[in-house]
Amino acid sequence: MKLVPVLALASIVLASPVVAKEPSRIVATAVAAADRPAEAKELDASRKPAEVLDWLGIKPGMHVADLISGTGYWAEIMAHVVGPKGTVTAYEPNQFYNDEKGAALWAGIASRTPLVSLVRYPFEAFAPPASRFDAALINMSYHDLYWQSEQYKIPRTDPDAYVRALYSAMKPGGVVGVIDHVGAPGDTRSTVDKLHRIDPGVVRADFERAGFRLAGTSNLLANPADDHSKLVFDPSIRGKTDRFMMKFVKPR
Q1: 181 in helix, strand or coil?
Q2: pTM assigned to the model
């Protein structure tokens, strides 16, 4: 009998086929918005924002959160989707984008898309309001909850506390999308520290422990050619890593 490696078996369980379809008109229009910066649009080919937001079910009028927002890439697109009857809250840790360049970046987003509200908080003390959001997205940053860095003043953080806080922040039926770089099973903190990757099984277990239900997975951003032992910033794979997508729901 042929044995299937553990990592391959995990991929089979977590990945589901993606049915190719045209994104909704509203989401496609949001991605094509003329006021989006050129540098953001350059990332669209690898991030496939229209397909991702359609898969998550982001719609006009929703109140959504962009978690560990970074450059605000997703927040800006989602603001165009939810429209004037919705809101987008971008959560960004105090430790990141806190220099003049970061201030200019977020000032630009505020001028283009006033629907986006920036909320700063200590990385280790995420505390959103209860029952606030219809949907949330954390893109290639969940693994950082297992990261520790003296350089960036990131203390050891409790991922369980973060996901519990997120669970409280979601409305019943609320959806959370998680996209991250695939990592091999093993010592999660060591893998994150060395490679900035995470085992998809760890993410699923964290969310289910908090009360979320896994509603779907997708291989839309998968790349079987990616070497999971490489640092995600390695020039040979940067921007082309094997990424998993999970959709979690807070039960009604």
Answers
A1: strand
A2: 0.90
